[in-house]
Structure formats: C-alpha cells, structure tokens
Write a structure and sequence with these properties.
Blueprint lengths: L9 H12 L7 H25 L7 H29 L7 H31 L2 H26 L2 H19 L4 H29 L2
Helix pairs in contact: 2-3, 2-7, 4-5, 5-6, 6-7
C-alpha cells in the first residue's frame, strides 16, 4: 500500500523559502548598478530641480532639457554596461536560487512601477494637472518598500528593514507634499540617495566581493 503523502504546513513552506534565500550568493551586478546609479543620477536631478524651485538655478530651457536628458542617457549607459557584464559572467556565476529569487521579486516590482508611471502620466495629461503625475513617485517608493520588506523577512538583514521602513515613510510624505514642490523635491532627493544609492552601494560591494 503506497505511503500517504505528507502535507506541508505553512511553517514548512516558510522554512523552505528561508532556506532558499539563506543559501548565500552575491547579488546580481545589474540590480546593484540599477539602484546605485539610479539613486545617484536621479538624486542629482532632483537636487537640480530643488535649485530651480528655490531660484538658485536659472538656466535656459534648452540647457535644462539637455541636463535632464543627459541624466537618463547616463543611467541607460551604465545599466547597459552592467547587463552586458552579467551576461559575460555566464549562468554559472549568477548566484544560487536565493539570489535569483530576490532578483525576480525586484524585477516584478519594476514591472509594476512601469504600469504606475504610464497610468499617472496619462491621468496628468488628460486632466491637465501636474500634481497627479507627482503621485507616481509615492507609489514607486511604496512598492519598493514592499519589496525590501519581503527581502528583510527572508534574509533578516537590518539595512533591508531600514530601507523598507524608509520607503514607506517616503511614500506617505510624498503623497502629502504633491502641492508643495520645494518640500516634495527635498524629500525625493534625500530618499533617492538614502534608499536607492546607499542600498545599491551595499549590493554593489557584495557583488564585487563575489567576483
């Protein structure tokens, strides 16, 4: 008589997921670069806009446009380099299932972020209200907070919890400050450096240590 299959309890499932994540492995360079370069470059752009809002920067429109476009071009160039570097490393060097699990979670968050950007951009253009567009950043930080909280739940690294809580606070603050441009930009600037660039540096350091 065949043995009765053992049913998995929620505790078994949690233990399995924790074993996956605690399996070690370096974070993928692409993810590290995305956070580090994105935080630094777009933090610099927000700082530039703070200067504009405060009346400290008064450039011609063409110069402003060139600066903003240059930020995005620089980010895409760095990101392309990171992607090519990861591909060159080969499948064997991309880390165990633990690393791929978290990478997939953040990739899924990125997909949600893209949908959010499209929704708010269309809504702002349709209603002719720029403040609607500004809500998208609050949602992005909220989604990032959720992703980092999941990472902390599985890996129990304190900086991940700090990043998750910081993202949640930032999301709420940005949602309340959309009608106050100077404060909105100030919060966004600090958050990009502290919650994107800094975690990106931690992951970048770990990724390089694994090479």
């Amino acid at each position: 008589m065949p043995a009765k299959p053992r049913l998995h309890s929620p505790e078994d499932d949690l233990a399995f997921m924790r074993a996956i994540v605690e399996g070690g492995g370096r974070p993928p360079m692409t993810l590290a670069i995305c956070y580090l370069a994105g935080g630094l470059l777009y933090g610099l752009q927000c700082l530039f806009h703070v200067g504009q809002a405060a009346g400290l920067i008064d450039w011609p429109d063409i110069a402003n446009l060139a600066f903003v476009v240059g930020i995005s071009v620089a980010f895409l160039a760095v990101l392309t380099w990171a992607i090519l570097r990861d591909r060159k490393a080969g499948p064997a060097n991309r880390g165990p299932l633990a690393t791929r699990t978290l990478s997939a979670a953040f990739s899924a968050t990125g997909m949600a972020n893209t949908a959010v950007i499209i929704i708010f951009a269309v809504g702002a253009a349709r209603d002719q209200d720029f403040a609607i567009w500004l809500y998208y950043a609050a949602i992005v930080f909220a989604l990032q907070a959720a992703a980092w909280y999941m990472a902390w739940t599985l890996k129990r690294q304190g900086w991940m919890l700090a990043t998750a809580l910081g993202g949640w606070v930032t999301a709420v603050a940005l949602g309340l400050l959309v009608r106050d441009p100077l404060w909105y930009l100030g919060v966004c600037t600090v958050a990009l450096f502290a919650l994107f660039a800094l975690p990106g540096w931690v992951m970048f350091r770990d990724a390089r240590a694994g090479t």
